[in-house]
Task: structure prediction
Amino acid sequence: MDGLRNQRLAAVRRILAESRVSTQGDLAERLRAEGYDVTQSSVSRDLTELGVAKAGGRYVVPTGMPGLLGSGLVSATACGANLVVLKTAVGTASRIGLLIDQGGHAGVVGTIAGDDTVFVATEGEAATQRLAQVFMGEEAMHG
Result:
């Protein structure tokens, strides 16, 4: 069963990357057309497990920190000495905050997320600037 589930999750990622899907029903239909036996409940669980968010009226799979601004999930950033503020699509801030927290990036102290805003506390100005560059996809940031 695990192998089949992993195949289905990979299919969900691929479908969302290749086409505009705006409802769980649409996604379920596409999965059924590929031979997967799914219900709307199983599709909902898959979307949750993959951390999928809705941005611009379509489902988007977050692929990591670099390029969040280009993903449609983050629309703007602002920086202070020890703070990066991200404006996100409504309802996606907590997932983006979790993505940042799990990233283990040097200089990130922690995050606070609301519904459409994430505050990222950093160790200082250099870390703030590096993190802002990561969100814009200008460099990869590793420990």
